[in-house]
Amino acid sequence: MQADTITDKGFFMKYRYWIIIGGILLLMPPLSLLFQFSQDTNFCGTWCPRMFFSWRKGMTGGEFLIGFARSYLGVALVFGVLISTFFLGRYWCSHLCPIGGSMEVGSKIVPDFLKINYSGVPSSPVRYGYLSVYLIAPAIGLGSLCCNYCNFAAVPRIFGAAFSPADMSYFFRTAGLINLGLVVVLGFLAKGGRAYCNFLCPIGALDAVSNRLGLRFGKRVTVNEAKCNACGICAKACPTWAIGISDKAKIDQLSCMPCRECEKVCTREAINYGRFKK
Amino acid sequence: MNIKKTIFFILTVAVSLTAAGHRWGDSAHSIGLITSKGGKARHPAALQSGETGYSLIATATVIPPYKGNARVVLEGEPKLDYKIHLSAPVVDLKLHRKPELRDDVLYDLQPSDRIALWVLMKPPVLDPVCGMSYTNEFSKHTHEGKDYFFCSEDCLETFRQAPGRYQNVGVRGKYTLAFYDTITGNSVLNVPVIFKTKEDTHDAGGHHH
Description:
The complex is a heterodimer of chains A (278) and B (209).
Chain A: E1 2-3, H1 11-14, H2 16-27, H3 33-36, H4 61-70, H5 72-88, H6 91-96, H7 98-108, H8 123-139, H9 151-160, H10 165-169, H11 174-188, H12 195-200, H13 202-213, E2 219-223, H14 233-237, E3 243-245, E4 249-251, H15 261-265, E5 271-277
Antiparallel strand pairs in A: 1-5, 2-5, 3-4
Chain B: H1 3-21, E1 27-34, E2 40-41, E3 45-48, E4 54-62, E5 68-75, E6 81-86, E7 100-102, E8 105-109, E9 114-122, E10 139-143, E11 146-150, H2 153-161, E12 173-181, E13 187-196
Parallel strand pairs in B: 1-4, 3-13
Antiparallel strand pairs in B: 1-2, 4-9, 5-8, 5-12, 6-9, 7-8, 10-11, 12-13
């Protein structure tokens, strides 16, 4: 499969890190701009993107819907992300998400010899194994992963801990320290900085499904097989290890986000972002 | 079917299920409604005895017509050292009026306000045998690298005879995170905080996110 048009080669590819850093500065403490429009301080509460779609055992339909109302801005965010992904690819994950973006930017300042290469671990089985438990465990009363292992709670508090005793309090609990460990080991210390996104983010997992379902309708990063010589340089640059090399480079659209790091390094201009043609 | 993928899927499900089912005893979350008529906590906050420190996130919504200032107190015996922090923007852009916390008093609570308090608790040093709170007259005894403090020779002797019985000593029983209107003195919310031993945490009734 290959793209038949090449679009916006410049801005989103060239300035991706600046867009991520801009998002972090606006959305993370100390500024937390977006949240202050709604009397919030972080992703918890009105902006929570993780809890509203989690059905807990014993919950009535009305209580489930109240969860949507309570986190209505999180609901709007998630649906906005899924719809934009369907047509444009996972730009939220690659350019806008301050959670994954912080881990990727953080990993850039870690020396290479300290980094862990997770590319030997198949990402989809881990991601959907985790998502299955995320959805099923609360529904059958076996516990929950929602709040105790929340990337949207942990990362903002890493920023906030330097300024706010309330944010620092998050790390005075075992679950907070475990979350910090996960962010460090699967984020800052990961080659490419995106192993957390690739394995444990439920929003990323849903977004990846939208990316896969919208393949025929929207724009994606694709390989022009006529130009590809399977050199493998793109696979090494991919932060989500979404590219496999056999006779040609092949992109797994369940893991790909349009960071376009592969497109940057391809010497034959064989990778482009655009519409599919069969 | 790809065996490697299947193994990773099963492993992830197993680890995730373990993580989902495990409850950390040093932290809890309570959800409450602040009302003029005493408030309502959705469930007690359950914590496990024997930890060296605890944190509770107490979130609450102010229900009309209540408005005012509320003092927040952690009540129960023996007294715990505690600190309360209000989750608030580091740089307040003043886009909305918000309640403020000063000296454990929430100022300017208005209908529909939502608050998130972080309560950090530290249990006192207790005589593991009789449960008395530490005073300067206590004597120290070290057992298997851990320090224990005793009010009397009798308690120390009891401990020496069966130290295994007193390993998990810690704060126990029911405490309350109480919110009182500063003008009327009336309770506007009571959040039960229950410290249970390892044996009975299974039915602790804690909020389990």
